[in-house]
Amino acid sequence: MTGLLETTAERRARRNRHPASDERPAWMGRQPRWATAARGGLLTVACLAVIVPFVAVVMTSLAPQRDISARGGLVLFTSEPSLAAYRAVLSGGVVTRALSVSVAVTAVGTVLSLACTIMLAYALSRPGSLLHKPILLMTLFTLLFNPGMIPMYLIVKQLGLIDNLAALILPVVVNAFNVIVMRSFFLELPGELTESAKIDGAGELRILTSIVLPLSKAVVAVVGLFYAVAYWNAFFSALLYLPSPEKWPLQLVLRTFVVNQTPLGTDELSASTESLPPQASIQMAILVMSVIPILIIYPFIQKHFSKGLLIGAVKG
Fold first, then answer.
1. Which residues contact 128 (CB under 8 A, 6 or more apart)?
2. Residue 288 to residue 221: CA distance in whole angstroms
């Protein structure tokens, strides 16, 4: 005991003499200046690699043909910015209709997917629920094995969803990965809360809406962002299931414009504007319009997103 007390006293004295060196873990030792400068340089390069292309896209959408031709197609600065490309795109009707389709599909699909995912994940997190293990195995099976494009098309065709906007939502309404993530979060919630609620006479629906969901804002925000981005960026399913161009979402219109080098409804654009803006400006304007909504939504759920990424990483 005396040796232990002496060892503790010596440790305390050494800590008082060198508090910084003893309290700092070994992996947090002081780094040389060149290492700090190298990390700062790499971070600066990574930021420029993201910011410069986005600035070039925005400025090209505002630039006249003279600046675009002089700078080889991408403009980082223009002395005569103009919104002519945005006016031409929005006045043509094609992009405006596609934008409304994308917004409607994203809003309805995200709400429906979140509702189905929350209910399925909560049911799978309750060990005594009906057919708990078979449904969980089926969910994991769909996560590991993708049915493929042809079976999905045949199913959509048999359901009569060809040329129907529901074909963009119903086949992908539940994502197995998101179900597993949300189920893992529900399993980490204290069981005493649900047990006390059951003692007070609360049902499963009341427990889910009044106890579980208020404690699960982080995972709901993360999964909702995953669904919203997936619905907003989807164009291949629209290419397969929607033969009518008037039902195409914004991403498919953008892809058609970039690949074919001509917009849908060029006659409408030409009739609505005396001089059509540069083709590169119209392309970049549509691209900006497809990116801006996600950039607007992300800052509001960033705090939940950073917390939700750690779901399941820390136990206890």
1. none
2. 24
In terms of DSSP H, where are the helices of 63-175?
65-70, 84-92, 94-125, 132-144, 149-158
> For residues 163 and 244, is the Cβ–Cβ distance under 8 A?
yes
Q: Calculate mean pLDDT across residues 144-167.
A: 88
Q: At which residue do the structure tokens 């909560």 appear?
A: 122
Q: Return the SS3 of 80.
A: coil
Give the span between the Cα atoms of 150 and 224, in whole angstroms. Answer: 28
State the DSSP string of 280-292. HHHHHHHHHHHHH
CA distance 47 to 31: 23
* Two tokens, residue 103: 């917004």
Q: Is the sign of the CA dihedral 180, 182, 183, 187 positive or negative?
A: positive
Going from the N-terminus, what domains does the chain have, and what CATH number goes with each? 28-82 (no CATH), 87-308 (1.10.3720.10)
Give yes or no for a contact between 223 and 178, defined as CB atoms under 8 angstroms apart.
yes
Residues contacting residue 305 through CB under 8 Å, at least 6 positions apart: 221, 222, 225, 298
pLDDT of res. 25: 55
Q: Dig out the tokens for 44 from the structure.
A: 């600066």
The pLDDT of residue 45 is 93
> What is the value of pTM for the model shown?
0.75
